């Protein structure tokens, strides 16, 4: 539920359907960073954003596991304020545009088990080794998303697979290594709680707050989704003052070469 004026990161954004929906929910105000490590897929993201008239998007090409906020922290420098205190209020002239996101979406790369119904060929690429490999990537991306989101901010983790190794195990790892907690959320879909054990492994009981979406219950593909709050309490007014963030967003977009930041 991103709001106008916030700073939002879509960690695995291409080809952009979720990114453009986020922009619409934000009313094109604030800063939306759409990142993907696949440069080829980013062309589809930019094309979709341009087609739909998105104006608050910055496109980045980085490995989300090591995502750098440096381009955004140094973007906002008002005229005549060189050498100003970078630790000042984010809305103050000469201070960094921002050094943390209010919200992050990690729709992680996965083994795509939940897409086999519409794309049977996906099964040809499936292997237990691939599940184990991509789970390591997912853990890294989710950890970085939590680290890059401010205390009280929200991170959503989702996949289109059923494998607990890529879902509950990833959440369990985040709960163990980062300052965060899983919180419940409502959905109109019929869902099943996350599982707490699989193949001899046991997971934090809080993973039951996640939602498993099964095709036979909803006539859909298969999905997994969890909502996490970073540190402290959830903030009902996540984000800086809208006017200040809008100013920061303008500065970021102007300083990042037509909306794109190279890796």
Automatic annotation (TrEMBL):
The question of whether Metal-binding is a record keyword is answered with no
Q: SUPFAM superfamilies annotated for this entry? A: S-adenosyl-L-methionine-dependent methyltransferases
Query: GO biological process annotations for this chain's record?
Result: methylation
Asked whether the keyword Acetylation is assigned, the reply is: no
| Keyword terms | Methyltransferase, RNA-binding, S-adenosyl-L-methionine, Transferase
Q: Which domain of life is it from?
A: Archaea
The positions annotated for binding S-adenosyl-L-methionine are 12-18, 36, 63, 107
Q: Which GO terms describe its molecular function?
A: methyltransferase activity; RNA binding
InterPro entries of this UniProt entry?
MeTrfase_RsmB-F_NOP2_cat, MeTrfase_RsmB-F_NOP2_dom, RCMT, SAM-dependent_MTases_sf
Query: Where would I find the SAM-dependent MTase RsmB/NOP-type domain in this sequence?
Result: 1-231
Region (Disordered) residue ranges read 239-263
Write out the catalytic residues in the record.
160 (nucleophile)
Q: Cite the Gene3D superfamilies for this sequence.
A: Vaccinia Virus protein VP39 (3.40.50.150)
| UniProt family annotation | Belongs to the class I-like SAM-binding methyltransferase superfamily. RsmB/NOP family.
What name has this protein been given in UniProt? Answer: SAM-dependent MTase RsmB/NOP-type domain-containing protein
Which taxonomic lineage does the organism of this UniProt entry have? Answer: Archaea, Methanobacteriati, Methanobacteriota, Stenosarchaea group, Halobacteria
């Amino acid at each position: 539920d991103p709001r106008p004026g916030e700073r939002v990161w879509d960690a695995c954004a291409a080809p952009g359907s979720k990114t453009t929906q986020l922009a619409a929910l934000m009313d094109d105000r604030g800063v939306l960073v759409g990142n993907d490590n696949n440069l080829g897929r980013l062309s589809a993201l930019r094309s979709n954003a341009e087609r739909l008239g998105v104006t608050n998007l910055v496109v980045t090409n980085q490995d989300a596991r090591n995502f750098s906020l440096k381009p955004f922290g140094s973007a906002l420098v008002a005229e005549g304020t060189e050498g100003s205190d970078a630790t000042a209020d984010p809305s103050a002239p000469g201070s960094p545009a921002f050094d943390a996101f209010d919200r992050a979406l990690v729709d992680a790369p996965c083994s795509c088990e939940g897409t086999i119904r519409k794309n049977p060929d996906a099964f040809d690429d499936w292997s237990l080794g691939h599940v184990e490999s991509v789970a390591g990537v997912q853990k890294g991306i989710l950890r970085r998303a939590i680290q890059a989101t401010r205390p009280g901010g929200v991170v959503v983790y989702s996949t289109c697979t059923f494998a607990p190794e890529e879902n509950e195990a990833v959440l369990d790892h985040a709960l163990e290594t980062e300052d965060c907690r899983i919180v419940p959320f409502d959905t109109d879909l019929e869902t099943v709680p996350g599982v707490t054990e699989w193949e001899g492994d046991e997971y934090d009981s809080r993973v039951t707050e996640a939602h498993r979406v099964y095709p036979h219950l909803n006539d859909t593909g298969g999905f997994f989704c969890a909502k996490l709050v970073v540190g402290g309490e959830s903030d009902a007014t996540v984000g800086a003052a809208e006017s200040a963030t809008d100013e920061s967003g303008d500065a970021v977009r102007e300083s990042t070469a037509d909306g794109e930041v190279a890796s």
